[in-house]
Amino acid sequence: MLIFTTTAELRAYVQAARRAGRRIGLIPTMGALHEGHLQLVRAAAQACEEVIASVFVNPTQFNNPDDLRLYPRLPEQDAAALAPAGCTALFMPTVAEVYPQPTVLRFDFGPLERVMEGAHRPGHFNGVATVVSKLFHLAQPHVAYFGQKDFQQVAIVRQLLADLSFDLELVVYPTVRETDGLAMSSRNARLTPEARAVAPLLYNVLQRAAEQIKSGVAPAAVQQQALAALAAEPAFTPEYFEVADAQTLQPVVSYEAGRPVVLCVAAFLAGVRLIDNVVV
């Protein structure tokens, strides 16, 4: 596995691969890799001759300085995990390499980003779209791989592809979970043992809500009961629980046959912000 720290190195590698007619897969990450990330790398290795993983903690998508400062950074561990999974090139740039000067361009995804993560993390998706656009230009992948755990992010990237005519395929893999149901996340590493013990409640609440939806319980009642269940656990501070249209991400008032619903939740657990979702 090759390791690149500059955009010039990555561009040269990509140009050579493209000239040779080799299929390129890209897995953008912020590092502190877990099985969810490695699932994407292995999938790319099955379908592509060149598998590029980026490890870059992108400052422009953080609206909380403490969250940026505390985000886990494990570059050596990440590199050691990527090679056996089938990664052929690791891109680990500095902030100055990705942002040689402040960006002036601003993305606005309209209603897609006025809800959930976008509503609670102003500027987040502008930062996501900026860095993802840069990575798509630099890596020129035929296929880009993302995980469903960041459901709204996937919707934003899909819109980005459509609006800017990126010539690549978006492949989304299901959320990978621990044996007790907790969605794998780089932020889980920050949980204390006590917080980790109660963390599965997040997925339990989603599962109960999904069953209620299948039984026809009204969206507002589902939302109210889910928030109450989370608030009943002292370690949790719920931020939002939304019953949304899986395509538009707008709140669902009533169910329509054939229209999938996504349940999205965000909560702080002992100071660590966790998100999860389930599609019904």
Low-pLDDT segments: none
Q: Summarize the amount of helix as a percent range.
A: 40-55%
Q: By helix and strand content, what is the structural category? A: alpha/beta
Number of self-contained structural domains:
2
So how many helices?
Answer: 11
**Could you state the order of secondary-structure elements as H and E?**
EHEHEHHEHHHEHEHHHEEE
Strand order of the largest sheet: 1-4-3-2-5-6
What is the 3D form?
globular
Name the CATH architecture of the largest domain.
3-Layer(aba) Sandwich
Q: Identify the CATH class of the largest domain.
A: Alpha Beta
Mean pLDDT comes to: 97
Which fold does the CATH topology of the largest domain refer to? Rossmann fold
Largest sheet: 6 strands, parallel
N-end to C-end Cα span:
39 Å
- For the secondary structure, the number of strands is 9
The fraction of residues in strands falls at 15-25%
Radius of gyration: 19 Å
CATH homologous superfamily designation of the largest domain: HUPs
Structure description:
With 280 residues, the chain is of the alpha/beta class. It has two domains: 2-173, HUPs (Rossmann fold); 186-275, 2-Layer Sandwich (Pantoate--beta-alanine Ligase, Chain: A,domain 2). 41% of the residues lie in helices and 20% in strands. The protein has helices at 7-19, 35-47, 65-70, 75-85, 95-98, 116-120, 124-139, 151-164, 193-198, 201-214, 219-231; strands at 2-4, 24-29, 50-55, 89-91, 143-147, 169-173, 236-245, 261-269, 272-279. The strands form two sheets. A six-stranded parallel sheet has the order 1-4-3-2-5-6, sandwiched between helices. A three-stranded antiparallel sheet has the order 7-8-9. The longest helix is centred in the middle third of the chain and has 16 residues, at 124-139. The radius of gyration is 19 Å and the shape is globular.
